[in-house]
Automatic annotation (TrEMBL):
The lineage of its organism: Eukaryota, Metazoa, Chordata, Craniata, Vertebrata. InterPro entries: DNA/RNA_pol_sf (IPR043502), RT_dom (IPR000477). This is Reverse transcriptase domain-containing protein. It holds the Pfam family RVT_1. It comes from Mastacembelus armatus (zig-zag eel). It comes from the Eukaryota. PANTHER family: REVERSE TRANSCRIPTASE DOMAIN-CONTAINING PROTEIN. Residues 224-498 form the Reverse transcriptase domain. PROSITE patterns: RT_POL.
Amino acid sequence: MHLHFSVSEKVKAHILKLNLRVPISNPVGAVVERRLSARKKSKSPWRKATVVKIQKRICRQAERRWRKTKLQVHFDLYKESLQHYNQKLKNARQSFFSEVINRNSNNARALFSVVDRLTNPAPSFPSELLSKKSCNDFAAFFTDKILKIRQTISSCSPRNMTISSVPPFSPVNLEHFDLLDHRALAETLLQLKSTSCCLDILPTNFFKNVFNSLAPDVLQIVNSSLQSGQSPQALKTAVIKPLLKKPNLDASAVSNYRPISNLPFLGKIIEKVVSQQIHRFMVQNNLFNALQSGFRAHHSTETALIKILNDLHLNNDESKTSVLVLLDLSAAFDTVDHDVLLHRLEAWVGVTGSVLNWLKSYLQDRDYFVSLGNYESERTKMKCGVPQGSILGPLLFNIYMLPLAQIMEYYNIDYHTYADDTQIYISVSSHDYSPLISLCECINQVKEWMCQNFLQLNTDKTEVIVFGPKNERSKVIAHLDSMSLKATNQARNLGVIIDSDLNFNNHIKSITKSSYYHLKNIARIKGFLSTQDAEKLVHAFIFSRLDYCNGLFTGLSKKSIRQLQLIQNAAARVLTNTKKLDHITPVLRSLHWLPVSQRIDFKILLLVYKALNGCGPKYIQDILVPYEVSRPLRSSGTGLLCVPRTRTKQSEAAFSHYAPHLWNKLPEHLRSAPTVSSFKSGLKTLLFTAAFE
């Protein structure tokens, strides 16, 4: 108890020290006041630049002089000053965009927010909701939603589970945190995004700039927290900002908003340190589920989907029908039970001592308030859930879900998880539909497990897709209907629209629609952007969509590739002011852009290289089989891969076939490149040369 008081007092002393420092320095005070004020953002913030204001004042003076004298000479001076003003305004506008783009070059969400605000200003928050009462209404709505889900779960009366979860044996425990030095703390700080919270005394960017002067205090707080096993109470409050779910919804209805949580930056520093040490311990002791891809190094939505679609293609090659079930959870992060989570940490991970005490302290006595403009709600206690917007939350949720895999393994059913997205899938042979029974039993057991662990499986939003020969699909769908499982032709899976034919037609339509929308916005503001900044926007908004999970596009038709290529061509024309009828190939060459087809091959080969060199998920490594020969040949030892045979043309799109086929075509020096960066550089040169020369 004394230690807890000590850490919290150090945080309070640090905040007090900052408060005392802020008024002394006018520049800092000005920054803080601007950051913490709730004034409405200007639609044209560049107009407030000092140089623009000065030139505007000169222009107004010249205008008044001309209107007073009506002399031609004064009119000419007015015109000249007006031209200077417009030029200064244009330069300030370009500087503003350049600063925003450079600051957020790796943050597409921030770029979208700024560009969208300036090109399509969103309607202001309804004035009738700007009050303390509305803040309390939002807080009550968000809290009641979670309580209702918990009550529904509590009333479901779970039956006895057929499968009992058994924690893995771990001879090693994580009992103490490693303390930090100044260098380690500075490295941690660099890894954090510069997102500020209204509870922060200093804006995060400014905090980072003056970190060296604050480092002794921050280091003392972090190490005291880790050593004492206590999370500072002052850092347990979250600020909730309601966000309208969709622009076309009624903005006056509280139910149409979702809560966006933000936490103090100092708390995120401590969380980052804790997260890194727990994650490192779990990796070293192989405690992660191999088929959990969420929030793990070298894992992604793309690698998860590649594994799943590879299995579906292989099933199809064996003339089997596949059934994929996408399980949907309701507010999963918010209903996590703290006692269950702490048991998972202790029994399944081996967390003990001051580490376990710190996590107990971190979860206890948390609260939040809703903030709208200058108004705030009353503080509301958080009785369950992992903190939204936190750094630790995703890792803790992964740990919470660890036992779930044993259910699928018991029924011998394939599965993959990504955070709260769980998908299970089976293969069905012709005239043998018994796997469907196992699938239904597995889903029921998953539902029971969810209920026991205070998670709600949303059966209405759970989706089922059937893949395989069309004549067999209808038979499987009929059996699923009899089991109250309704199949659909397509579903959005980890951001990719997957259809039963695996042709991605609707996904490509979605990419096309969103890409042209963003390209239109870029074209609108391109006039006051440098070419370099405009290209950064193209990469952030267009290529991020063309390249997202493009490792799945191994079997795309020429028509589909052409559709994606037209998007890239349009982006090149906007960027270079190329006319519609001008040949585009020289333009793409001058921009050093790989065409879409080569970008797909680049992604696949990069995934292969990373997997073979220990920088990819184990499930991708297992797909790639090294080529071995019975007697020494010149080609042996050059890193070739086995290319499995396939029975159908469609099955050649399987990663296990397509990737080794591409890999074996690479020159030996590229396959044996010493680093990822050298491999990427050499591979791009190779593909670029093949595309344009």
